[in-house]
Amino acid sequence: MIHTRGLTRSFRARGETVEAVRGLDLDVETGSVVAFLGPNGAGKTTSLRMLTTLLPPTSGTATVAGCDVLADPAGVRRRIGYLGQGNSASSALRVLDELVTQGRAYGLNRSEARARADQLLAALELESLTKRTVGTLSGGQRRRLDIAIALIHEPELLFLDEPTTGLDPQSRANIWDHILRLHKEIATTVFFTTHYLEEADLWAERVMIVDHGRVIADDPPEKLKADLAGDRITVGTADATDAARAAEVARGLPTVHEVTVEGTAVSVRTTGGDAHLPRLLRRLEDEGVQVSVADLTRPTLDDVFLTLTGRSLRESADADSAPSAMFQGA
Ligand SMILES: Nc1ncnc2c1ncn2[C@@H]1O[C@H](COP(=O)(O)OP(=O)(O)OP(=O)(O)O)[C@@H](O)[C@H]1O
Ligand SMILES: [Mg+2]
Fold first, then answer.
1. Can you name the residues that pair with 153 across neighbouring β-strands?
2. Which of 108, 119, 232, 266 is exposed most, by the fewest CB atoms within 10 A?
């Protein structure tokens, strides 16, 4: 559904060259759900804008839904839906009219556009708002309408750039319900970016992590977490002597990657932590080490990014949400 080779894009800004995307090689299968993750400025939006023909690449090639982005941009646009990052332009039209107008722009006749609009308004729970003007919708309602607009022509491929940023957890869950239902019903391929890592973890079959314009990891989320982060077992012991003995026992186990001692607590990195936790506890009991508390932590995609880059992706998500948090507090 998407194939790119050596796709790059640079910008000239204040006499300097910014290399936003540096050689993207991408093969996305039809019907898959792929998350594109990375910190602010990693090149996600720039990549999406090239794939949706809104921005010409500096070099490289891209075929999207069977059409070349440079040779046949109209062909690409007919076959894809795109939800851009941030707020879309306000419209004085009513919700239903906006959707029908967009459908007509894709070449649907009036009755086709109306039928498709009704279907999407129902699917995205916007039925009670059909007569409202677009400008009066709340952020979550507007985002749902934008998704409906992106889907009006039943695209084979849907690009979503931060579809849920700034929305409350319930609206976010709701939007994902809708996206995934449509993905199942019409087998739409979904390619999305998000700063909410749990969304990628929950919904994507494949996660690509980009940093400084390059893909630095590309695998199913479970594999990324198992390969690059692993589970963490922490046990609390009675005193420093017991902690040292516990650490020695843990180091003797074959599946343990890393053992750290902090005061009376011993922390162990491993794969398959759920199986190893009881095993470790039995060994410690055999050795006469008293364990007061034991804890198993599963890794997140942020742990993966931390392992890969030494930086946290979470920080950029927090930075993004800071203004609204401040606003709520005011
Ligand atoms: N029109 C432009 N002119 C100059 N620089 C640009 C332009 N568009 C993007 N950039 C730069 O390209 C880099 C990548 O930007 P991009 O918007 O693709 O990042 P992103 O991964 O989408 O980030 P975010 O998570 O903040 O949305 C950044 O350094 C950005 O400042
Ligand atoms: Mg972006």
1. none
2. 119
CA of 48, closest atom in ligand 1: 18
3-state SS, residue 4: strand
pLDDT digits (tens, 9 = 90+) for 256-267: 878 999 999 999
Ligand 1 center to 209 CA (angstroms): 16
40 within ligand 1 shell (Cβ under 6 A): yes
Pick the CATH number of 230-298 from 3.40.190.170, 3.30.420.40, 3.30.70.100, 3.40.225.10: 3.30.70.100
Atom of ligand 1 nearest to the CA of 38: 21
157 DSSP β-pair partners: 80, 189
CATH number, span 2-225: 3.40.50.300
Amino acid at 103: G
pLDDT, tens only, 39-88:
999 999 999 999 999 999 999 999 999 999 999 999 999 999 999 987 66
168-217 pLDDT tens trace: 888 888 889 888 988 998 889 999 999 999 999 999 999 999 999 999 99
Cα gap 45→38, rounded to integer Å: 10
The residue contributing the CA closest to ligand 1 atom 5 is 11
Closest of 273, 196, 262 to residue 231, by C-alpha: 273
